[in-house]
Amino acid sequence: MCTLCHLVARASKRIVLVVEDDDETREAVTATLESEGYRTVTASDGQDALAVLGQVRPHVVLLDLMMPIVSGWEVLGAIQTNPLLASLPVIVVSAYVDHAPGGVVRVIRKPFRSEDLLSAVAAAAQQ
Q1: Which of 1, 25, 72, 112 could bond 65 through an S-S bridge, CB–CB 3.0 to 4.6 Å?
Q2: Are 47 and 69 in contact (CB under 8 A)?
Q3: Measured CA distances, 94 to 6, 15, 67, 73, 111 (Å)
């Protein structure tokens, strides 16, 4: 079995928090992840993301940075400074960032391929 196939096969019941303000992108990412056995929780802005993180402990956070109300940068800062959340793997999904800011395990640049997204999530979920 290929490495990606093995990681995806083990993904069953892993929870991914998808933080994305664009409805179409959020729905597409969610559908892609769920088709591979992940459970998803979504947030349409940073404020919603922080509320979700107060209730659910995901295995991975997919985080857009440019969002209304509370930005992804602020969410990232809140994750990094909270001892209960600091170990969460965060994958930034953005059209505006090319390198991983501190505390981020990977950056996926928009537009992205589903295979790249699944590979990054599978690797991060195993951490």
Answers
A1: 72
A2: yes
A3: 27, 21, 11, 11, 8
Q: Are 80 and 72 spatial neighbours (Cβ–Cβ below 8 Å)?
A: no
Q: What's the pLDDT tens digit per position in 28-41?
A: 999 999 999 999 99
The angle subtended at Cα 90 by Cα 86 and Cα 94, nearest 5°, is 140
Radius of gyration from C-alpha coordinates of the chain: 13
Would you state the CATH architecture of domain 3-125?
A: 3-Layer(aba) Sandwich (3.40)
Span 101-120, mean pLDDT? Answer: 89
